[in-house]
Structure formats: C-alpha cells, structure tokens
Design goal:
Number of helices: 18
Distance between the termini: 15 Å
Helix content: 25-40%
Largest sheet: 5 strands, mixed
Strand content: 15-25%
Number of strands: 31
Radius of gyration: 34 Å
Structural class: alpha+beta
Length: 827
C-alpha cells in the first residue's frame, strides 16, 4: 500500500536535496576483549488512570475519563458515621397518571407502555420512587435500573427524600448505548437505595420488576461481519501490585492492607486488552461490594495491548453502607457485555477483604529500592576458574590444526591438538605455581604446571598440546575431556568448588571428515516455517511459563526464517546462543552473570554494578552479552509471542553490529554511540517484519486511524523529543529519521520515504548497514549534525508517522500491538 503524506512546505524538497554530512571513514576492527557491556531492552506499556465516575441522575453516557491530578498523600483519618433515620421507607412510587412505577415507551413524554417494542425504536424509560415512611431519608442515595442482570443506569437523589414525598425521572434514552438488546423477552428492574445507604424500617420493598418484549428490526437483515480476530478484555496485575484489585487504607498503596470502616479505603484495579485488535467504543468497568455496584468507570482508549490502571478511588463510604466484617470486592470488565470478545469468560475477578473498626496501623515503611544496600564484599583471595576467552569454544578446545581456538570435526586418523584456558576471576593475583590435571574418559593423561605470576583478571593458557595419541586411546565415538584446576589446593582461593570443567566430543573414522556446510532454506521450507504465523502471533499467553505451554521452538522457527530472509544466513550458523527463560530463571541468569563482574571489579565500582544489575533484572525483557566465548541473547519468555520475537530480533541487530564492527561495542559508552547502536537495532526490527510481510503477504504493521493510535503516535514522539538528550533509546529513534532525511549516502531511502511514507525493505536494510558500519570516532560529530536538524524536521517525522494510519481499515487487519513502534514511528 502506498501512503501519500502531506508535509509542511519545503520539507519534501529538503529530503531530496543533498544531505549535510560527509560519508563516514573506513571501519577498524581491534581485538575483542573477553567481555563487554550488555544492551538492555525494556518492555513498554501504556497506563491510563480514570477518575471516579460518580453516578448521576442525568441520562448521559459517562464521558471518557481523563487522568486525574496527582493527589497529595495524607494519613488515613476516621470518617464520621452519621446517625441514620429509623422510620424512613423507600420504595417504588405510584404517582397520579402513571400506569406503573416503571414505564418503557417508544414515545417521549408518554407515561404509558408501548404495546410493542422494536429494535428500530428508541426506548424511553421513566421511573418513580417514594418515601412512605414517617421520617425523611437523609443524604444521597441511589436508584439503579437493571436490564436483565446488567445495571444499565444509576440515578442519584442527592438531597434525600422527605417523608411522604416522591421523585420521578422521565424519558431516559440511553439503554441501547450501554447494552446489546436482542429480540425477545427481557426484564427491567428498578432497585431503590441500591447500596443500602439509608436505614429503613422495611428493606424488603425496594425492588420493582417488569418484563417487556422486543421485536426484531423491520430493516432487511444483514449478516454480521464475521471477525477472526477479536479484542479480549481481562483483569491483570500491574507491575508491583499484589493483585488486579487492591484495597488499602493508604494512598498510593500497591498491596492490600488493613482496612477499617472508620478510615478511608483506597481502591485500585488494573485490566488490559490482551487481544490482538482494538476496541471500537466505550468499555464499562464496574466494582461491586458484595452484590452492590459501588463504582463504574467508562474507558475508550483501548488499543490492542493497552494496560490500564484505575488508582486510588476513595468513594466507598459515600456510596455504600459499609459494615465491619468480611466483604467481597468484584471487578467486572465490560460490565454490560457491550464488547464482542474472543473470550467472554475472563472478565471478572473477586477477592475477599476484611474491614475492622477504629484506626488502622501506621503505614509500613517502604523498603529501600537502592541496590547499594546489597553490595557484596570484594574478593580478598584469588579464584582460579575454567576460562572463557572471547572467540574460543571454551576452557577446553580440541582441533586437528595448531593455532585454532574452536573445536574441530574430529577423526581418529589425525592427531589432535588440545588447548586449555584458566582464568583468575579475582582482583587478587596468584604468586605461587599451580597445576592442571587433564582427564580423558576418566583417566588422567597429563598434569600441566603453571609457574610464575597469574595476575588479577589474568588468563593462563595451555596452547596446542599435541601428545594425545591419534590412535589407540581416541577411538570412534564420544570421549569426555575434563580439567581439574589446582587439584592439590596449592592456592588458597575464594571458591574451591568451581575448579572443574568437562565437555564431550565425538571422533569419526576416516582420514577426512566432511564438515557440514551452512544452512540453506528453500522457499518451500521457509513457507513451512512461517505457516500459521498470524494465528501463532495472536495466541494469547506467554511463550514459556513454568507448568504451562512451551512455544520457544515456534518462536525461534519464526526468528530463523525472518533472519534468513534478511541476511541469507540461518541463526544456527552464527556464533550465538539464544536463551529464552521464564521470568524467575531469567533474573537468576542475570544475577549469575553479574557475580562474574563483581568478582573482577573493585569495591568502588560496585554501586554502579548494583544499579545495572537492578535495571537488567527488573525492567528488561531481553539483553545481549558476550559470555562463554560467544554472543548470548537472553530473553524473558513470560511475554507474548510477538514481544519475545521482537526482543530476540532487536538483539540480533546488535549481534550483527558486534560481528561486523566490534569497535562500536568496544569503544566506550557515550550517549551518541549508544544511540547509534540502538538506532540500528530498532531499524533491524522493522526490516525483519518487512521481510516477513513481503514473503507471507500478511499485513502486520498497518493500524487503523483511531484516536487512540493518534494519541499513541503523538505520545511516543513527544517522549522521544523530551528524552533524547539523556536516553539512548529516545535518541536512537530520532537518529533513524534524521539519518534518512540528512545523510547524503541515504538519498535513495529518503526518496522512498517521500514517495511511500515509509522505507522499503531494501531502504531499511541500507539504513541499518550505514549505522552498524560507522567508525566510532565519527559517531559524535555525525549524531551532533543530525540533532542540529531536529527542529527543522520534527514536523515531518510527525506527519509521516500519523500519515501511516489507515482510515476505514478492516479490523481483522489491525497490526500487532508489539509492532506499533516499528509500524508507525520508525522510518
């Protein structure tokens, strides 16, 4: 699809003029260190806060909520309990001229029922109540109208009702806006004082109910459009909360705590659209105390993937008569079943809470989140461990050629060379000699004595040992090699339990062993790997969860296919390990990797490491590190499928940069250099999905022109413009756009952007290659020149992004929530 974007005057021409930058110089490739800093990928979400939707007597639809101002924290204070009347009695009314206390008519201002209600007509509902007691009903109370089992509207009597007085509401016409009416018989129920705010002499006469029949529409029946992809609304537990529904006596609490009828109760809830498509209209969200509706909010900005939070509603004592004891709070999403969902059975969550009397305990002290409090002690002894050198196949390497550092395809007909690597994982050197025992299949074959100094953070290497017999001992089949470091404990170490390493290698027969070639996929194989992709991406739930389904193979199959379509190389042929783990194991892996960094760092560096570990283990969804001699991509698999795929692909973009231009990885960590690395990985994500789209014919990156998506685009761009001076991710997003608009070597990409409103696959890859091959010493000046043009081109970035939204798009073709940044706000 071609998109034509109207740009501010002069900008389209400016994009096609020669750029402002000179081409970058040639790339340098210094030797790689044993380790490098990690790249962190953070997961994103949208959070909206709704104000209280106080019931009103006016027959209007609840307006779309806007985020409330941040309230000022205050300690819980006792709420005075008024002395209620004892001789009031609220019930349905019997005013003169009314045929019943509850009337449904198709004519406005008519106080008699319509004999036949049609789906084509507007239903006007009028109702009457009275206080037949001898005392006034003091204070506000509520009158609810039910349609079958749904509360469809709440009226408020704000000033109570005098003894012997009545009250009426005429011609409420909002029924069809809050509930789906099907042909047939339905009950309409009037409930007076629906939350028991008024103490009455008779609590049994508050309900009046009638049945009405709706006939089908007289218009020619049209078959409803069948949708294969539907939204799905469900309660969720937001980050840091202990449940989807929280009740506490403290403002801002994220865990439920002690409650009292004499103190404020703050309620909050979280829910999300976990389906693959957006919700068109309003969503009503109700909170019930036992069987009484206490709060209703209306939400409208529900794009696919949105997470929404209602925080610190404190109107419970003003809405319901709250008695001490145990009560059930129930959260109902899509409370009147207006939204057609893929799963209608996951909209409700109920939790039990207990309210006491009197004051509540003081708010518990918040545990400090400063990771410095958990600083380990620096090592005071050396620590010899099996060594992993960058580019080597491990602490033991066996090959048939001297001077190589990767395992060979082995044969009994040729002599092997053995390499052994030991690392002093400490900031304390080893002055005394130590030995290394080498075992093959459990039999010791040699002892190597390592004399002289082993410095802190130093490697000791046995290289190309060739005295292992080529025949006799090494027979066809598997053989296990094992090293034991310092077997006689000559060196006092910080850890004596990490001195052993073993690996198993396989010997073949014959003089020559044919090494397998690179993986080659045919189009038929790639189509098979991507078969059912849309259904896979729409599958709810995480990729991997303890005790649940494991979809990691399916994820990596898609990753491999897309990577091959872009690069002509299988992921299996890269010097790479992809590790997808459940969240707890993901965090444990990060902590284990950081223990290695702490061991070789000075105590003065620990605070920085602690904060980095906290960041990586709590807010990241994926990262890339050099570890175990190769690149490791780590992913949190307790995320949706498309999120995990995108995370892995983002890190693959970093991996290719590290393999093609390691100098970018190894040259410091300036904001500009970090931003260029992020920009390239972000563009690599988009190129991946463009390649998938082209090959499969699917539309994965197109989004409807809804107000929610316009707000999303504006919000993302504003966030980047506000944060690019300090955040490499924000600056990286802007670098991509500005590089296309300014860099003369990307003139063809700029032409594609002007013509189509977006980059083609080829242009996207050209931008990626330009960024990853840039020498580090020119990055600062390059990014500085781009930023100097930001004010000039910011309107064009906004116009291009908003111009991609598709008016009238088929809801079934809505792009994935995980790909909105790639689809809308990446050039």
């Amino acid at each position: 699809m071609t998109l034509h974007v109207r740009l501010p005057a002069g900008l389209a021409l400016a994009l096609l003029l020669p750029g402002l930058l000179a081409a970058a110089c040639s790339t340098t490739e210094p030797a790689a260190p044993a380790d490098a800093t990690a790249d962190v990928r953070s997961s994103d979400r949208q959070e909206l806060s709704a104000p209280s939707a106080t019931p009103t007597e006016e027959p209007t639809v609840t307006p779309t909520p806007e985020p409330p101002p941040t309230p000022t924290p205050e300690p819980p204070t006792p709420t005075a309990t008024p002395v209620p009347p004892t001789n009031a009695n609220l019930t349905f009314g019997d005013p003169e001229g009314w045929v019943a206390p509850l009337i449904v008519s198709t004519e406005e201002g008519v106080l008699r029922d319509t004999a036949e209600l049609s789906l084509d007509d507007v239903a006007y509902i009028s109702l009457s109540i009275a206080n037949i007691g001898s005392e006034a009903a003091v204070g506000p109370f509520f009158v609810d109208v039910y349609f079958d089992d749904f509360v469809v509207h709440r009226f408020t009597t704000r000033n109570g009702l005098d003894a012997g007085a009545g009250s009426e509401w005429l011609d409420w016409r909002g029924l069809s806006q809050v509930v789906r009416i099907e042909p047939g018989e339905h009950s309409i129920r009037l409930v007076v004082d629906s939350t028991d705010l008024v103490r009455e002499i008779d609590e049994t006469d508050n309900v009046y109910e009638r049945s009405f029949v709706w006939t089908p529409s007289g218009e020619p029946a049209t078959a409803p459009a069948l949708r294969s992809r539907l939204p799905n609304l469900a309660p969720i537990t937001p980050d840091g909360w202990d449940a989807p529904l929280v009740a506490a006596s403290y403002l801002g609490a994220t865990e439920s705590g002690p409650l009292s009828v004499d103190a404020k109760t703050f309620l909050k809830y979280g829910f999300a659209n976990v389906g693959p498509t957006s919700v068109f209209g309003e969503v009503l969200v109700d909170v019930y105390l036992d069987d009484k509706l206490v709060n209703r909010d209306s939400w409208s900005r529900l794009s696919a993937g949105d997470v929404l939070e209602r925080v610190d509603w404190a109107g419970l004592p003003d809405t319901v008569r709250l008695e001490p004891g145990r009560h059930t709070l129930t959260l109902k999403i899509d409370a009147t079943d207006l939204v057609e969902e893929s799963d209608e059975d996951d909209n409700v969550v109920s939790l039990e809470f207990s309210w006491g009397t009197g004051d509540v305990p003081g708010r518990p002290a918040t545990a400090s989140l400063d990771p410095i409090l958990d600083v380990p002690e620096p090592l005071s002894l050396p620590n010899l461990v099996p060594g992993w050198l960058w580019g080597w196949d491990g602490p033991i390497v066996v090959s048939h050629q001297a001077g190589t550092f990767q395992d060979d395809y082995l044969t009994v007909a040729r002599s092997p060379f053995v390499d052994i690597v030991v690392f002093n994982e400490s900031i304390v050197g080893v002055t005394e000699p130590f030995s290394i025992d080498l075992y093959v299949d459990g039999e010791k074959v040699n002892t190597f004595v390592m004399g002289g100094l082993t410095p802190e953070r130093g490697f000791r290497i046995v290289e190309d040992w060739d005295r292992l017999e080529s025949s006799g001992r090494m027979t066809v089949g598997p053989h296990t090699f094992r090293i034991v470091i310092d077997p006689d404990n000559d060196v006092a170490e910080a850890d004596e339990a990490d001195n052993v390493f073993e690996k198993t290698l396989v010997w073949a027969s014959g003089a020559d062993v044919e090494e397998p070639g690179p993986v080659v996929y045919t189009d038929a194989q790639l189509r098979n790997m991507l078969a059912g992709l849309r259904d896979l991406l729409d599958t709810p739930g995480p990729v991997l969860r303890p005790g649940g389904a494991d979809l990691t193979r399916e994820v990596m199959r898609v990753v491999d296919a897309g990577y091959y379509l872009m690069t002509g190389t299988s992921v299996a042929d890269e010097r790479l390990e992809v590790v997808l783990l459940p969240r707890t194991e993901y965090e444990d892996w990060i902590w284990d990797s950081y223990s290695e960094r702490f061991a070789v760092s000075r105590g003065s560096d620990y605070p920085v490491l602690m904060r980095a570990r906290e960041r990586d283990s709590t807010v990241s969804s994926g990262l890339i590190v050099r570890r175990f001699g190769k690149i490791v991509i780590l992913g949190d698999a307790e995320n949706p499928i498309a999120d995990v795929i995108t995370t892995v692909v983002h890190e693959l973009g970093h991996m290719r940069q590290d393999l093609v231009n390691p100098a970018q990885t190894e040259t410091g960590s300036s904001l500009e250099l970090a931003a260029v690395r992020e920009a390239s990985a972000q563009q690599f994500e988009r190129a991946f999905w463009l390649a998938i789209e082209r090959f499969t014919g699917l539309d994965l990156l197109k989004y409807p022109d809804y107000p929610s998506y316009r707000a999303l685009v504006e919000g993302q761009l504003n966030e980047w413009l506000a944060g690019y001076r300090s955040d490499e991710h924000s600056l990286g997003h802007l670098v991509q756009w500005l590089a296309v608009m300014v860099d003369p070597s990307l003139r063809e990409a700029a032409a594609d952007l002007v013509d189509d409103g977006e980059l083609t696959l080829e242009s996207s890859l050209a931008v990626y290659e330009r960024l990853i091959r840039m020498p580090p010493d020119v990055v600062g000046e390059y990014v500085g020149t781009l930023v100097d043009s930001l004010e000039r081109f910011a309107p064009a970035i906004r116009a291009f992004s908003l111009g991609r939204l598709v008016p009238g798009q088929d809801p079934d073709a809505e792009g994935l929530s995980s790909l909105r940044t790639s689809g809308l706000t990446t050039p």
